[in-house]
Amino acid sequence: MHVLIAALLGFGAAFIVNRLADHLPARRYNQLARRNPFSSAHSLPPVPPLVPRAPLSRWFGITSVASGALSKRTARYLALEIALSAIFALLAHVYGLYLPVSFFYIYAALFALIAIVDIEHRWVLPSTLIALTACAILEWLFFGWRNVPHEMVRGALNGFALGMCLWLLGLAHGKLRKIVCGKAARRTVFGLGDVWLLSACGVLIGGEYILFALLFAMLSGGVAAFGAVLQRLLSRRRGQRRGVLAIPYAPHILIGTAVWLYAPAAATQLLRSLVLG
Length: 277
Hints:
Layout: H1 2-35, H2 61-67, H3 74-95, H4 102-121, H5 126-142, H6 149-181, H7 192-205, H8 207-237, H9 250-262, H10 264-276
Helix pairs in contact: 1-3, 1-4, 2-3, 3-4, 4-5, 4-9, 5-7, 6-7, 6-8, 7-8, 7-9, 8-9, 9-10
């Protein structure tokens, strides 16, 4: 019964995440346009309301599909509703529906929100990072069973230091590409938003785990990059125009963090098997 309740909670969380994934980037675009001296009031991009001004059948992906009222975001709505419902059900099966693990469900929803925004807009919004860090602090204040303050600070510093190293390597790669190819890279492989995300994830899982989380993130990112290369090669064979080969890195940071947040024992065993063969 508790698994079914968790699945329904996940479905409701997916609605909130989907609305925020539409609202927050649109608000950011609106703010950027307002700072542009050449923009006018009628040219500002619209910001959708958090509560949609539409029939109830269009609020959810599953009802949109059932009613035939499809939109460009219906696929994402439906996929997230299924994914978060399954994730919440799995968390309830493993950890139960107890107050001390309530933040595990919140983190899953926040991870989904950050990943969606980065995939669709290549942004890691400060508001989502503040929410993630605040939840980690609140979890310690309310329960204090999983982390301690000095380890949270150590995790933030380790995450920031690792992220800055990767960011500087990305800048060096861009400079080298400009020297060799005569063409500057339009964006770094690892952006500043990823640096701050890695620091926030360090607050969440601690100073030691963030090191291993980055390792898993690099493995996941490597698989995604290999898939992107294959897709690019296939598109060239079909005569399609080649796009810029770039993958969003925030989802892979979150995958590495989630592994050590939800299953540290299994992750430790997997890491030992990879190292020891």
